[in-house]
Amino acid sequence: MKTNSEYDAIIIGAGPAGCSAAAVLAEKGRKALVLEREVFPRYRVGESLIPFTFQPLERIGMISKMRASHFTKKYSVTFVQPNGRASEPFYFHTRYDRDTVAQTWQVLRSEFDTMLRDNAVEKGAEVAEGVSVKELVREGDAVVGVRGEKRGGEPFEVRAPITLDCSGKEAFASNRLGWRVGDPYLNKVAVWTYYEGAKREPGIDEGGTTVAFVPEKGWFWYIPQHGDRVSVGVVAEGKYLTRDGVRDPKAIFEREIERNAWIADHLACGRQVGEHYLTSEYSRHSRYGAAPGLLLVGDAFAFLDPVFSSGVMLALKSGVMAGDYVHEGLAQGDLSPSRFAAYGAELREGIENMRKLVYAFYDPGFSFRDLVKKYPELGGEITDCLSGDVNRDYSQLWEKIREFAPLPDDLPYGVPLEPEGHLIAEAEAQEAEAR
After folding, report:
1. Which residues, in sequence order, are CB contacts of 260 under 8 Å at separation 6+?
2. pLDDT tens digits for 255-286?
3. Residue 425: pLDDT above 70?
């Protein structure tokens, strides 16, 4: 890793957003440096891909590698009521080409992210692991690089015309600059673990995702993976999961198993392995998406509740978009924040469309079954949005859903921050306080 300005872009984080952006930039001949705090392979949750991950994966040359992998193929999603009654599987091939978009994968993120990293390196990106970024380097209004520590504690500083924050849920820049904003309603808690030997469905349904409901609008995910492994977790309001004073993740998880007959049956023959994980406050947004010398990508831009598995798709999609926008900006000598206004608007539109479906899902008066029973013509639009085709006009769908449940107004976030001295000074003060 050099410590001068020989890079075109610095990328914080080697997850799906960072590696897809790096792959695009490197393929275009740009010198991209990816700084990753951990050493691969490293653990991440977020293991179920949705159909519209196909396009960004294809763009960065990953489809042939995914097809050659041992990842479990995913063709559908099934919803299960607490009493164990399962819907018919929703097959993606009813809307999309069976040989491309309609078949996706259940991934082990330690392996999937390593493949993305290797793909970026093959295209010419430089990835430095075990490197902790501590602060943004600024000159006047502009971010001009980062400072941090290498393995062993050696300090470093590296500079480039633009820094991409792809730090994931850590949201490096928005946390330090005071831009992070919670979602008004989507503050859930998740507890999850893994099983071996648990029950799987036969044939084409073996790799399908199952969303299994528990009371109080909570739900389990059930994600079959390769190697006889299943990822299974429960998501609900914290006050529901911790009722009666139960706070131990293992105790919470084991109690909720009995709240859904399908989950209890499928786990009964399996063996729990590894630890029980817990996280809270899933959904949050960044007030700004770009500033002089800085661009936010993937979960660092915004993260939604995981019920519809949109996180990896949005990370890959935004990474590819960011790579294109930065390359064009470098080519034209213009990386001003306003240049990324369209990038932020497109990303925000997709997030807001998915966010509306998430809000509807959690409303006690709403069910997709009731909506489609009254308006069968909307079934296709629901499938499209849930599959990740999020940048479309869904105004008719929202109009009909509002007959069953209120939907949120769009949040005015992700816009570019133009250089204004008092705002930058305020951000510097907040960053110093965070340190």
Report:
1. 80, 82, 84, 212, 213, 214, 220
2. 999 999 999 999 999 999 999 999 986 789 99
3. no
Nearest CA among 369, 375, 419 for reference residue 400: 375
Where b means 16+ CB within 10 Å and e means fewer, 212-239 reads bbbeebbbbbbbbbbeebbbbbbbbeee
Residue type, 394: Y
Report how far apart the first and last C-alpha atoms of the chain are (Å, whole number).
Answer: 25
For the chain, what percent of residues have pLDDT higher than 90? 89
Kindly list the structural domains of the chain, giving each domain's residue range(s) and its CATH number in brackets, ordered by start.
9-71+108-183+284-350+414-434 (3.50.50.60), 188-280 (3.30.9.100), 353-401 (no CATH)
Mean pLDDT within 143-161 = 95
Contacts of 83 (CB under 8 A, 6+ apart): 261
SS3 367: coil
What are the structure tokens assigned to 359, written together? 């809000």
What are the DSSP E strand ranges found in 89-183? 90-91, 104-106, 126-129, 132-139, 142-149, 155-159, 162-165, 180-182
Residue 304 corresponds to which tokens in the numbers above?
A: 């939604």
Cα 359 to Cα 357: distance, rounded to the nearest angstrom: 5
Task: Please tell me the least confidently modeled range out of 86-95, 126-135, 226-235, 396-405.
Answer: 86-95
Q: Determine the Cα–Cα distance for residues 143 and 162; give it in Å rounded to an integer.
A: 7
DSSP 223-273: EEETTTEEEEEEEEEHHHHTGGG---HHHHHHHHHTT-HHHHHHHHTSEEE
pLDDT digits (tens, 9 = 90+) for 327-377: 999 999 999 999 999 999 999 999 999 999 999 999 988 988 899 999 999
Residue 83: how many other CB atoms lie within 10 Å: 9
For residue 432, give the DSSP letter: H
Q: What is the pTM of this model?
A: 0.94
Q: How far apart are CA 186 and CA 41, in angstroms?
A: 31
Element (H, E) at 313: helix 311-332
Could you give the residue ranges of the DSSP H alpha helices within 11-104? 16-27, 54-59, 63-67
Q: Are 350 and 308 in contact (CB under 8 A)?
A: no
Evaluate whether 427 touches 177 at the Cβ level (below 8 Å): yes
More confident residue, 231 or 88: 231
92 near 103, Cβ under 8 Å?
yes
